[in-house]
Write a structure and sequence with these properties.
Layout (H helix, E strand, L loop, with lengths): L3 E7 L3 E7 L5 E8 L11 E2 L1 H19 L6 E8 L5 E4 L9 E2 L7 H11 L5 H4 L8 H11 L3 H6 L3 E4 L1 H9 L9 E3 H4 L5 E2 L4 E2 L1 H7 L8 E3 L22 E6 H8 L8 E5 L3 E8 L10 E6 L7 E8 L3 H9 L9 H6 L9 E3 L17 E3 L7 H27 L6 E4 L6 H11 L3 E4 L4 H14 L5 H7 L2 E5 L5 H18 L5
Helix pairs in contact: 1-6, 9-14, 10-12, 12-13
Length: 503
């Protein structure tokens, strides 16, 4: 009987379940969006129970479409939006509060207090991260401070914390009284609480944040043949399947892109935009606004580290153009609208809706549109939206060059926006290096599948995964040097205009 690997992709805007065959090809998939909750400006939440229920629905939907049943699935891998924080009751499984999403800025005051006591980089030596609203630790502290009963429950060991993969693994493997409470090293490395050297929770930081150790999950390798548990026979899969691979979404894309060698890099264009560079078995401290994080770890092996540049708003800017301004009715229409003009007409959009992430780390920044004249049309704005994604990625590449000392020679790309050829060509032009799009662009889900498949021996080694990777199209730079310099100068002027709005 032919076997498949199942991948649960828990994204910021939707959940998907995808079945992959041995060649890394998609056999079937199903997808459901979940509600984006905005209680206040800059605050973003999700309903954790909706995410769990939607996970069950897409698993059933995919299996119904494909005719594949649980006995034909060799293992389950999970990838997830990182940093998003859930605290729930150990006995009932009920969340104490909606999940606080990675983009949410409600912890700004907590972060300011932490910075005041020791500077923005006070935890960077241990965690590889600056103090920022992005990460999970301050989000836990906010829930313990603001939600009645949460702090008492956490102190008595009755409240559990997890990022979204932890939440779903706990439910998949039995839920109350049975579920495995684990997080993989890639997700743990994004909490601002894990020590990069020991791969364990940092007791000093837990003390400073006043977060009880008992509420934290066990940290495990990303690719783990010592399975964390099996799906429940009465659950969405209908049978017991090992759950043994987990990666934060950006690290999953790195694995899916087969970036296993030092110096290989990928950029994912999703809700946000995330560029990761493999730096090998030793963490490299960033001096230029990047994050040092774990790329992946196989059971019994040293972890592989990477430098990461994180952009909060990428595809979300296209959604804003569609949903808030109504300039397009479908996201796919933006390319046609942008192609109606030859350039941006001098208009730039800096999408600092919740501050700027790497390499600036300015929580006081807010979005701006600059360079407006009566000449500007909605076509120019559409083009400025796409170009903003390419410029933000360019800023990160420049910072990586300075940190690593290795100049980028090409960039592997993935995510929903890579079908936009205007964006891909402009990215190649401003970077002045080739941009390489793979045949399978669902590399986030594929990376989670690879993690689970490696754990159970479905794939034998990393070379087999490299052999699966193939190119769809290469975008070579075509822009004249003087024009590139002119455009980049305009972008950096626009970025400066975004600073200080919330000071």
């Amino acid at each position: 009987m032919e076997k498949y690997i199942g991948s649960i992709d828990l994204g910021t805007t939707s959940n998907r379940f995808i079945l992959f065959d041995h060649g890394g090809r998609i056999v079937a998939m199903d997808q459901m969006e979940h509600e984006q909750i905005f209680p206040k400006p800059g605050w973003v939440e999700h309903d954790p129970m909706e995410i769990w229920n939607n996970t069950c629905s897409v698993v059933k939907g995919c299996m119904d479409k494909s005719g594949i049943d649980g006995d034909e699935i060799a293992a389950i891998g999970i990838t997830n939006q990182r940093e998003t924080t859930v605290v729930w009751d150990r006995q009932t499984g009920q969340p104490y509060h909606n999940a606080i999403v990675w983009q949410c800025t409600r912890t700004d005051d907590i972060c300011k207090r932490l910075v005041a006591d020791g500077g923005q980089d006070r935890f960077r030596g241990s965690t590889g991260l600056p103090i920022a609203t992005y990460f999970s630790g301050p989000k836990i502290r906010w829930i313990l401070d603001e939600v009645p009963g949460a702090a008492v429950a956490a102190a008595h060991g009755n409240a559990l914390f997890g990022t979204i993969e932890t939440w779903i693994i706990w439910w998949l493997t039995g839920g109350p009284g049975k579920g495995a409470h684990v997080t993989d090293v890639t997700n743990a490395s994004r909490t601002m609480m894990m020590n990069l050297e020991t791969l364990d929770w940092d007791e000093e930081i837990l003390g400073i944040l006043d977060i009880p150790h008992a509420m934290l999950p066990r940290i495990v390798p990303s690719i783990d043949h010592d399975t964390w548990g099996h799906t429940r026979k009465g659950g969405p899969f209908g049978t017991a399947i090992p759950v043994c691979g987990a990666l934060g979404d950006q690290q999953a894309a790195m694995v899916g892109q087969a970036c296993f060698d030092v110096g290989e890099a990928k950029n994912t264009y999703g809700t946000g935009c995330f560029l990761l560079l493999n730096t090998g078995n030793e963490p490299i401290a960033s001096k230029h606004g990047l994050l040092t994080t774990v790329a992946y770890q196989m059971r019994g092996q040293k972890p592989v580290y990477c430098l990461e540049g994180s952009i909060a708003i990428a595809g979300a800017l296209v959604q804003w153009l569609r949903d808030n301004l109504g300039l397009i009715t479908r996201a796919s229409e933006i390319e046609t609208l942008a192609e109606s003009v030859s350039d941006n007409g001098g208009a730039y959009i800096v999408p600092a809706f919740s501050g700027l992430f790497a390499p600036y780390w300015r929580s006081d920044a807010r979005g701006v549109i600059v360079g407006l004249t009566q000449f500007i049309t909605k076509g120019h704005l559409a083009r400025a939206v796409l170009e903003a994604n390419a410029y933000q990625a360019m800023d990160i590449v420049n910072a990586m060059d300075k940190d690593s000392g290795v100049a980028l020679t090409s960039l592997k790309v993935d995510g929903g926006m890579v079908v936009n050829e205007l964006l891909m060509q402009f990215q190649a032009d401003v970077l002045n290096v080739p941009v390489v799009r793979p045949q399978v662009t669902e590399t986030t889900a594929l990376g989670a599948a690879y993690a689970a498949g490696l754990a159970v021996g479905y794939w034998s080694d990393l070379q087999e995964l490299r052999d699966n990777w193939s190119t769809d199209k290469i975008f070579n730079p075509q822009m004249a040097e003087d024009l590139r310099a002119q455009y980049i100068h305009g972008w950096h002027k626009a970025v400066e205009k975004s600073f200080g709005w919330m000071a």
